[in-house]
Amino acid sequence: MKFMGYKRPDGKIGIRNHILILPTCACASETCRIVASQVKGSVNIINQAGCAEVKGNEDITQRVLTGFAANPNVYGIVVIGLGCENHPHKSVKASIEKITNKPVVSFGIQDEGGTVNTINKAVKAAHLMSTEASKLTREACDISELMLGIECGGSDATSGVSANPAVGNLSDRLVDLGSSAMISETPEFVGAEHILARRGATTEIHDKIITICRDYEQHLAGVNQDLRTGQPTPGNKDGGLSTIEEKSLGCIYKGGTRPVVEVVNYAERPTKKGAIIMDTPGYDIASVTAMVAGGCQAIIFTTGRGTPTGHALAPVIKITGNSDTYKKMIDNMDIDVSSIITGEKSIEEVGGMLLDELIEVANGKTTKAESFGFSDICIDRICRFI
After folding, report:
1. Of the candidates 76, 102, 133, which is a domain's last residue?
2. Local confidence band at 200 (pLDDT 50, 70, 90 cut-offs)
3. In a domain, 8, yes or no
4. By the 8 A CB rule, do 260 and 201 touch?
C-alpha cells in the first residue's frame, strides 16, 4: 500500500511540508509567532519552558524541541532564542544538526538587538526555506514509512466499545503492513496494565510496561498524591466511566492486539517498527506533544465527550463513537463511528474505513483541527510543585 509523501534528506518521509519557527524558550515564542504569520508554509509553537529549569526538565524540553525539528513533516527550521537561556539558539541549532541534516538557521533576540531586527532576519530566512520547500513534489511511498500516534481524550462509555476498538483494528492493520502505531498515556493503563503487558514481545518489554505504571503511581505517592483523585475526570464520569480501571480497559483497546516491540521514554524516537508504547502522562495534549516529537507524522484521536485538540506539525484526526457529540461538535469531529454501536458496521469494517481516511490525510486531506490552525503544545515536567 502506498501514500504520497515528501522524501527528506535524512531518509524519513513527511506527509506535510512545514517550515518550523522554533522558540528556544518562552521569551522567544511571541517573536516566532510573528515570523510564522509572515511566511506561507511556516508554523510556530508556543514554548512555555526552556529557561531556569532543573536538569531533568531541561532534558525533556530539549528532547521535545529537537524532536519537533526532526519530525518528518518539517522541511526546515528557523530557531529563535533570547540569548540568556540555558540552551540559546546556537546550542539548540547544534543539537538539531546532530540528529537531522535538514536546513536549519538560528537567531538570538539579544544578539540581533531586539525583536524587530530578529523578525526581519528570520522572515527572510524562512522565506528562502519556503521557496525551496515549494519545489518539492509528493512521491509514492510505502505505508511502512508511516508512524501513527494514537490518543484518546474526553472519553465516555462509547469510547471503549466503538472508537477505541476501531482504532485498535487500524493499529493492527498498520503493524501488519510494516508500519508503526504508538499509544501513550501511562496513567490510563493503570488497572489494566497486566492485560496490556501480556502483549510484550519479550519478558523485558512485559516487565517494562508493569514498571512504568508502578513508577508513575509511586512518583505521585512520594508527594502525597493519588492518581485516582484526577482519574477519571469529571467529564469521564458524566460520560459513564466510574473508575480508573474501567477507563483503562477502554483505553488499551485502541492499541490493538499485536506484540509490543518497544517501550520508549517521553518524546523519545523509537528504534523499531511495530506496536510501540511511549511513557507519557495522561493529559492528552502532553501525550500528543511527545508522540509528535517522537516522530509520528499523524495522530488519530478518539473522544466521546469531544475535543478540538490539534498540533502545528502533525494532522490530528478526531473520531467519536458518540453520535450526539459528532452532531454537536461537527466543526471539530472528523469521523463518526457510532455505526458500530447501532450495529450497522462492524469494528473490522470501520477499521478499514479509518485506514482509508489515514491514507487520504497522508496524501494531503486537511483535518478539522488543521483547518482552524490549532497548535496545542504541552511539555511534561518531572518536578511538580505541590
Report:
1. 133
2. very high
3. no
4. yes
User: What is the spatial distance between Cα 279 and Cα 37, in angstroms, rounded to a whole number?
Assistant: 34
Supply the Cα-derived Rg of the chain in whole angstroms.
20
Alpha-carbon gap, residue 168 to 178, rounded angstroms? 16
Cα(296)–Cα(229) distance, rounded to whole angstroms? 31
Residue 3 lies in a domain: no
H/E run at residue 131 = helix 115-133
261: which residues sit within 8 A by CB, 6+ positions away? Answer: 201, 205, 272, 273, 274, 275, 276
pTM (predicted TM-score): 0.95
With respect to residue 1, please indicate whether it lies within any of the assigned structural domains: no
State the residue range of the domain holding 72: 18-133
Q: Where are the alpha helices (DSSP H) in 134-253?
A: 163-176, 193-197, 203-221, 234-238, 244-251
- Shared domain check, 210 and 153: yes
Separation between Cα atoms, residue 57 and residue 48, nearest integer Å = 12
Would the pLDDT of 386 be above 50? no
The three-state DSSP-derived secondary structure of 34-79 is HHHHHCCCEEECCCCCCCCCCHHHHHHHHHHHHHHHHCCCEEEEEE
Q: Which of 133, 159, 192 is the last residue of a domain?
A: 133
203 and 78 within one domain: no
Q: Residue 304: phi, psi to the nearest 5?
A: -100, -45
pLDDT in tens, 154-196: 888 899 999 999 999 999 999 999 999 999 999 889 889 999 9
Q: Is beta strand 180-183 parallel, antiparallel or unpaired with respect to 147-152?
A: parallel
Q: Identify the three-state secondary structure at position 236.
A: helix
Non-local (6+) Cβ contacts of 23 within 8 A are 29, 31, 32, 44, 45, 46, 47, 50, 80, 81
Same domain, 116 and 148: no
Is residue 282, in this structure, part of any structural domain at all?
A: yes
Name the percent of the chain lying above pLDDT 90: 85
